[in-house]
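Re: beginner question about structure tokens

> Can someone show what the tokenized structure looks like for a real chain? I only ever see the sequence side.

Sure, here's an example I had lying around. Input first:
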Amino acid sequence: MLTCDGLGGTEMMVATLVERLDRRLVEPSVVTLEPPGPVADRLASTGVSFRSLGGSGLPVAFARLGRILRRERFEVVNAYGFKSTAVVRLLVRALAPRTRFVSGVRGLHVAELEDIDGAKSRALLRLERLGASLVNAYDANSRGAVELLARTGIERKRLHYIANGIDVESWPAARPGDSTSSAPIILCVARFVPRKRHADLLEAVARLASSGVQFRLVMVGGGPTLAQSRDLAAGLGLHPPRVTFRGPASPDEVRNLVAEAHIFCLPSLWEGMAGGVMEAMASGLPVVGTDVNGIADLVEPGRTGLLVPPRDPARLSHALEELLEAPRKRALWGAAGRTRIREHFGVDQMIAAKERLFVSLAQTG
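And the corresponding structure tokens:
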């Protein structure tokens, strides 16, 4: 398997996957294009083969990877990231033609682009279609990604939807219906980029504040639109403790913040598979989100949360107010969300699906 080595969702998913794969079925080996980081630290005591190719630039890293592929003859190679999957498929076909190649798609688009309808996005999809014959399987964590690839012209038999999985028991149970706080906490954990639409959430809570609704909004994450969001909050009169910007947070810090919150909110324009929503639901928080791919796949309106159209602060404000003023509903919907994640998006389901994919590909190699 090939990935980077950071604190991103893909890296942590790979770490969980290789820790839990049934060694009687799959013997994993992890190779990263970057210097050792959190994944290396996490896997250090597991006995999993781990190699870092980083430190000398991508051309040298890919050359080293080529030597590994030629020498070790893996049955299946699973790569993540647009640049990695584009290059590694060529290396696999040239140096290890019997190896089966899996391209991991960790979002709605094959590349991390904000504008998925723009000219660059369309051009990259055309390139992906041209190189699709070198891919034995696409492993997508989003139904929307599967449909996007199919519309691009990639054969459906190559497309596999495997949802992200989460270990519910590793997330502390929040008490979203707890009314001991005079100001229920709305939590938003998301990178500050245009598609997350933090401005819509700030405008929505400004409406709540002007109506006298009690709440606190905690926004977690960093990114290019953070400063702009801070300025907007100040312009709307949303000052601490009404609105708090926590900046980037570690996984453990996010767990603590989720446990203290009452509602989770994510107003994105689109998502692949929204990890923050999964984590909030695993902790028993009701979710208010936009009715878009990657959020609507998780949230059942009227049972685990509420969905509103994107770019609609007024509707978002009404949905938040409905839950802010209904502690019992928050508790019931939060519990239903935790059950939904456990039954449909648990880590065991993800691991089993990955194992089936790897074994079936190895048997056809």
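Each token stands for a local structural state, so reading them left to right follows the chain. The mean pLDDT is 93.
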